[in-house]
Amino acid sequence: MDWKSCNVLVTGGASFIGSTLVDALLNRGARIRVVDDLSSGKLENIANHVMHQRVDLMKRDLRDPGVAEEAVKGIDVVFHLAADHGGRGYVDLHQAACASNLMLDGVVFRACQKAQVEKVVYASSGCVYPNYIQTDPDQMLYLTEDMVGPPYDADNMYGWAKLMAEMTLRAYAREYGMKTASCRYFTVYGPRGVENHAVIAMIARAFVKQDPFVVWGTGEQIRNWTYIDDIVNGTILAAEKIDDGTAVNLGTKERIRVIDAAKEILRYMGHDARIEPHPEMPTGPYNRVADNSLARRLLGWEPKVMFMDGLHRTIDWYVSAREKEQVASTLEAMLTER
Ligand SMILES: NC(=O)c1ccc[n+]([C@@H]2O[C@H](COP(=O)([O-])OP(=O)(O)OC[C@H]3O[C@@H](n4cnc5c(N)ncnc54)[C@H](O)[C@@H]3O)[C@@H](O)[C@H]2O)c1
Fold first, then answer.
1. Are 3-188+226-250 and 190-223+254-289+305-334 in the same CATH fold?
2. For the chain, what are the domain ranges?
3. Residues flanking ligand 1, CB < 6 Å
4. pLDDT at residue 79, rounded to an integer
5. What is the DSSP letter of 283?
6. Whose CA is nearest to atom 23 of ligand 1?
7. Which residues touch 1 (CB under 8 Å, ≥6 apart)?
8. How far apart are CA 50 and CA 316, in angstroms?
């Protein structure tokens, strides 16, 4: 794909992942429009590009009449990342809000089809996988794409909406000939990440010197946190190489226990605190790790950043970018909000 001759729309382009994708696409020479209502995205993530007219920003809600149609006009490739989404606290406690993604995704996909957009790439999630197979942290489970179901048991309304969007895009590929791809992101972390996701939340707790140091869940739960640059590279490769609506995992195979991530954060940040697990708080599945052989095969993708390296880079960024007082005053709310 020749990005230099491409008009690209990134929905949700002011977000953590969206804005990093915008940076990478600009580096490849694409012309970019962003539509974002800034409900959780931050203008500062793309402000420099907007100011220098490298990005055309529409600050609009895609669910409002006519906005999606206007946004896709003249566009060749759409990366659809806009979503009502937050971290574990948010997706567990805000089911109705996350259900609005069913409508948001439907409106965007329909507008793409009507405008004959060449390619639509969708930001899906590990939350499409059935909860009931992810319960035992001692099991060496690697989620392959076919394990999604049936029977289906997605993770909250957030996960169901992601699953429905994937299925919709596959149907559009089959029945309307629209080229589509879905990327199942697994717990993304890195610079510009926000405190409603576990890694940044733990860094923030250490940053404000929390003691006892609270960990949600028993700490035994396993994740495969995947670094932002790897996610963005995989997403662009999916745009280049998948046409038929296939959904592909973008995630590392590193199995990291939350408690071990917490200990490393405390060590690296020099904060000697007592860790206090809170199993009653929103925790998510106890064993969520991707298999990534399909991404290797279809995209030639493999994650490049090991967790310890990415974690240290993320901490260094966080400490340089944030103010203690500001973090302390917003942290509790951020854990369950967007
Ligand atoms: N962060 C992760 O670990 C992760 C994992 C799996 C999937 N995802 C998906 O990746 C995408 C980006 O997530 P993120 O973590 O970077 O941040 P995010 O959740 O803040 O991104 C969503 C973006 O969409 C915008 N938005 C929301 N509703 C909108 C609307 N109606 N109209 C216009 N814009 C709207 C927000 O302002 C924000 O910029 C989301 O689709 C999310 O579901 C993220």
1. no
2. 3-188+226-250, 190-223+254-289+305-334
3. 12, 14-18, 35-41, 61-63, 81-85, 104, 123, 125, 185, 187-188, 197
4. 99
5. -
6. 12
7. 77, 239, 240
8. 26
CATH of domain 190-223+254-289+305-334: 3.90.25.10
Distance 271 CA to ligand 1 centre (A): 31
Distance, in Å, from the CA atom of 318 to the CA atom of 326, rounded to the nearest integer, reads 13
Q: What is the pTM of this model?
A: 0.98
The tokens describing 167, both together, are 């299925």
Probe target for ligand 1 pocket from 81, 192, 230, 338, with the most ligand atoms within 8 Å of CB: 81
Sign of CA dihedral 198, 202, 205, 208: negative
pLDDT of residue 1: 87
Give tens-digit pLDDT for 256-313.
Answer: 999 999 999 999 999 999 999 999 999 999 999 999 999 999 999 999 999 999 999 9
Candidate from 10, 11, 15, 225 with most ligand 1 atoms within 8 A of CB, to mutate:
15
82 Cα to the center of ligand 1, angstroms: 5
Cα 288 to averaged position of ligand 1 atoms, centre (Å): 20
Bridge partner list, 325: none
DSSP E strand stretches across 105-147: 119-125
Predicted confidence (pLDDT) at residue 179 exceeds the cutoff of 90: yes
Mean pLDDT, residues 169-186 taken together: 98
Rounded distance from Cα 15 to ligand 1 centre (Å): 6
CATH number of the domain located at residue range(s) 3-188+226-250 in this protein: 3.40.50.720
**Residue 149, pLDDT score:** 96
